[in-house]
Amino acid sequence: NTMTRPPGVFSPDGTTLYCSGSDSVYAISTDGEIRWGYYTSKGYLNLMVDNSGYLYFHNPSDSVFTCLTSEGVVRWGNHLIDYDLVRIRSYNAPTMDYLGNLYYLAVNSGWEHGIVSLTNEGDYRWFWGESSPEAFGSDLISDKNNSIYFGYAVEDDLNVFSISSDGVSNWETTIDNIARYSDEPCIRSDSKMVLTMQNDWSNPIIVIN
């Protein structure tokens, strides 16, 4: 019962796999040895690791953002209320930019639905949001220019956004009469956004410049 649902992440040197089981986060060597475990009570968390080997995750069971060292020691831990938040959409994947900033889909105390950004030291940066709760339904991704991308579908319309690392809107677009949006966008090496769609008769792929 400790199989992971969100994918695991490797340490920068490729020698350790970090994964979230049913109630703990584990560090496993490439030889299959469990190096350490960190009890979380809640399982299957989205994990991120930076170039320094620090591991980041949000635990919905206690509403705490946690950063662990490569040895499994708590570097910092902050509660939602420290950032004026009431909820993290933990079923959508967060992302990290090349500067080490963290981004999560969140709801603030004013019940705006949007994106919260934190530094890798756990400091609050900004919140970018809208009032529509269905507006934020995809995983987050970041490109080499540290822009953040996400999208959502309302009925047959696809809405796609890009915001800068400073929380400023780069652009937004709506594609009418398109199939249901899949949750996992990606960015090509030329910074074009690729979206996979789902419907009853085909699975189209859309590329946005």
Observed structural traits:
single chain, mainly beta, 21 strands, globular, 48% strand, 5-stranded antiparallel sheet, 4-stranded antiparallel sheet, 209 residues
Question: Explain this structure to me?
Answer:
There is one protein chain. By secondary structure, the chain is mainly β. The chain is 0% helix and 48% strand. It has no helices and 21 strands. Strands 9, 10, 11, 12 and 13 form a 5-stranded antiparallel sheet that branches. A 4-stranded antiparallel sheet has the order 1-2-3-4, with no helix packed on it. A hairpin with a 5-residue loop joins β7 and β8. The model has no long low-confidence stretch (mean pLDDT 85).
Short description:
With about 210 residues, this protein is mainly β.
End-to-end span in angstroms? 42 Å
Radius of gyration over C-alpha positions, nearest whole angstrom? 17 Å
Query: How many separate helices?
Result: 0
What can be said about the biggest beta sheet? 5 strands, antiparallel
User: Percent helix among the residues?
Assistant: under 10%
- Uncertain segments are none
State the total count of DSSP E strands: 21
Label the overall shape.
globular
Structural class: mainly beta
Average predicted local confidence, pLDDT: 85
Report strand %.
over 45%
Order of helices and strands: EEEEEEEEEEEEEEEEEEEEE
